[in-house]
Amino acid sequence: MYLNIISACCGAAPVILFIIIWNLFKDILCKMEGMATNDDMNITRVLFCGPYFPPSHIYTKEYLQNYPFIQVDDVPLADVPEVIANYHLCVVKSMRLNSNVISRAKQMKLIMQYGVGLEGVHIGAASNCGIKVARIPGDVTGNAASCAEMAIYLMLGLLRKQNEMQIAVKQKKLGEPIGETLLGKTIYIMGFGNIGVHLAKCLRPFGVKIIATKRSWASHTEVSSQSNALPIENGIIDDLVDEKGIHEDSHKFASKADIVVCCLILNKEMVGIVNRSFISSMKEGSLLVNIARGGILDYEAVAHYLECGHLGGLGIDVAWTEPFNPDDPILKFNNVIITPHVAGVTEHSYRSMANAVGDVALQLHAGTPLTGIEFVN
Q1: Which fold would CATH assign to domain 143-338?
Q2: Which residues belong to any copy of the D-isomer specific 2-hydroxyacid dehydrogenase catalytic domain (predicted)?
Q3: Where is pLDDT greater, at 24 or 282?
């Protein structure tokens, strides 16, 4: 069509011919831009918030590399409010999504966590905007097992005095410090969910007594669909827990334990629940381990009881502020071990969660039901 028009105008003045050709060229560009826009509409965009936990977006991109209609971006935290309107799926990681940010997510269909915690998402605001909120179950991805292993790592590090051993190596000393063993200890698992169950399984061979609390205990027998799972009776896996209680029993259980392990989900009720009253109820010299969320522990209370010696040791994978300040005075104590929020960051766990996010993105693109995640609204 364009060639016929140009041929018909060849006898026209050069200026007129230039104008005609230029207008035809702009028309072609506009059509090309329209095609690009149409293609753009067929892309499902996945937003990872912030640079932390880099394997999450790296592994998800790898999983989706053969699906060009899924676009995965990791965006600096400060830029998220400005670009969130362009995305259909948001993986929050450590981002705090308040009502203002969520209100900008005009195309958003789903907000999810790369794991189990969702305390940073304003769920009510998401619901008001018609956006679903979900998390990835920890028991099917290996996340719970990875966190349980980290809890044991921190326990053993405190019992065997990891920091003091490093000092002894530098000072060329042998046969010191004298450590403790897990054998015979009473372990209080505070929050007996998926992580707590895996932790109890791992701890049993150490010859410990396990006590645990949770919000409520099932009153009926459950059997897991996994073929290698143990039967579950009265809400606990048979032979795993020696004594069980509810959250209101936490101080009583803390007074019996040599080691308290926090495996709670952080919500309004659990913020600062490990406070002065709780720690003072713990046995003198007992250990505190937290692989859940930093906000569960009252910082001032923990620092006070470390200073006075009532708390025998602190092992945390999560902190009150993250990234944690390496100059924080709490790190002056040799009986404190901190790791950089890596309890669930294992090859197996992160590959599994990347697959879960990738599958959800593909389902979202296809308009099929979303599976493999737990909705919270």
Answers
A1: Rossmann fold (3.40.50)
A2: 59-368
A3: 282
Contacts of 326 (CB under 8 A, 6+ apart): none
Considering the chain, what is the average pLDDT of its residues? Answer: 87
Q: Copy the structure tokens of residue 273.
A: 């629940």
111 forms bridges with which residues in the sheet? 90, 133
pTM of the model: 0.81
Residue type, 30: C
Contacts of 52 (CB under 8 A, 6+ apart): 93, 94, 322, 323, 341
Q: 79-100, pLDDT tens digit by residue?
A: 999 999 999 999 999 888 999 9
Instruction: Spell out the domain ranges in the chain.
Output: 2-40, 44-140+350-375, 143-338
Rounded to 5°, angle at Cα 60 from 56 and 65: 150
For the record, the structure tokens of 23 come out as: 């207008």
The pLDDT value recorded for residue 11 is 55
Q: Residue written as tokens 């329209």?
A: 34
Separation of alpha carbons 259 and 212, rounded Å: 12
Question: Of 322, 321, 309, which is closest to residue 283 (Cα–Cα)?
Answer: 309
Residue 237, classed as helix, strand or coil, is strand
Distance between CA atoms of 165 and 135, rounded to whole angstroms? 39
Buried b (16+ CB within 10 A) or exposed e, 252-276: ebbebbbbbbbbbbbeeebeebbee
Q: Which two tokens stand for residue 246?
A: 């509810």
The span from the CA of 74 to the CA of 253, in Å, is: 43
The angle at the Cα of 125, spanning 262 to 368, to the nearest 5 degrees, equals 90
Q: Which helix (H) or strand (E) holds 316?
A: strand 313-316
**Span 44-140+350-375: which CATH code?**
3.40.50.720
Task: Please report how the helices 347-366 and 55-63 are oriented relative to each other, as an axis angle in degrees rounded to 10.
Answer: 50
- Tens digit of each residue's pLDDT (9 = 90 or more) over 342-355: 999 999 999 999 99
The reported pLDDT for the residue numbered 120 is 77
- Dist. CA 143–CA 280, nearest whole Å: 32
